[in-house]
User: What shape does this take?
Amino acid sequence: MVKIAIGGIIHETNTFAPDRTGIEAFAQQSLCEGDAVLQRMRDTPTSLGGSIEGLAQAGYLPVPLLYAAATPSGTVTRDAYEALVGNLLARLRALQPVDGVLLSLHGAMVAEGIDDCEGDILARIRAVVGSGCPIVSTLDMHGNVSPAMLANSDTLVAFDQNPHLDTYERGFEAAAILRRIIDSGLRPTAAYAHPPLLLSALTTWTEQPPLRPMHERAQEMERDPRVVNVSILGGFAYADTPFSGVSAIVTTDKNPVLAGAFARELAQIAWDHRTAAGYKGLAVDDAMRRALNAPRGPVVLADVGDNIGGGTPGDGTVLLQALIDAGAHDAVVVITDPEAVAHAVQVGTGAQIEMLVGGKCDTWHGKSVWLIGVVERLTDGRYCVEGKDHFAQLYGRDVNMGRCAVVRCGGVRVLLNERKTPPGNLAQLRSQGIAPEAQRIIVVKSAVAFRGSYGPIAAEIYEVDTPGLCGADLSRFTYQKLARPIYPLDSGIIY
Assistant: This one.
């Protein structure tokens, strides 16, 4: 039977974040080894779940290595990185020989001393399996593509959608490509192009330029029988690396000239729509005025700067303070603050409470707010996502926010949790006794991912240019390794 090694190491690294990501962050989110990989990831909506199903339909035997994923955060410690990669490689060596390797990687993982973790992982796997063994991997569309990633893989398949609602499909596609290599003699030849264009998280929504016109053309290209896959990556601007930014990968069946031409064409489309990269959302005062005057709700305010899915702490207070100052009614804000949760648990449900909330992790996301209110509800913070969900597609359906407390302060409810949790699903609020559809204003700490769940119920959506580690104004960040010049940070660029 054809034997395929499967696994993955996934982290979107915000190198501007002051925290460091250790092995415990992976253990808390997703870390399993050997047979536990199949037990946990089979039948999930993740890319690895799609790959496992694709291999099953091909009649191949998936042999699990290791799967580790952590919520986006600061640079991964070298010890954690080497422990994870070392474990994966040791298991791979013990399985030799294998007929192929099928991975789930991110594309924007950075560890201490290693700017290109995916390129390093793929190179180390290639050294184990040799040049004749096919290696196929999925990537997050926020990946920053390096030459080493292409050189040490046969095909890279990126998610097409942001919010990421097609991860399972891309994993299944990756398995189908691997099958074509093994059974049908497919010889993938890839090329990529990397225009000098840097997108904030806010401008990587695939329904808007510059990514939408790229995808429209990519769909036409994929109808060409010579093309195996076209992947458009918006990049991750908050990983300060030499490879950060937009890229296009085109894989053909032994046609490098066509691959190169198509990749360059897609890069040119991105460049032609580069002015879209300058969009920053609304100023806080403007967004608040519109939300308070909206004829009906829910009005969703996207706290772009404190986008948990981009590695922020989730304790930003700018919009919370603005809502309290404005005397808003039927408003909800989620704040990650273990200290505040502990205090609420101590005083108990129904008790009056006064405490400092949020703004405790760094100086990027606003000052702590003095909150005076009533503890309405205490829970263990566990829930199962409903429907399609951006983050369920990455990590699975079961979510643990840690202990939670709902505190009412006038007309504003503050959901406090111990573990930062991206707002990708309405079940987050429902699990805490809050009906999202009944709210006037909902603050989500996200740039794009929230749209999958909140878009259908929102009367209005306003993206807010708040300060933070995922701010839309990239000039606020001090880059040291980014390749320059690059738009929109630099002018006078000829491409």
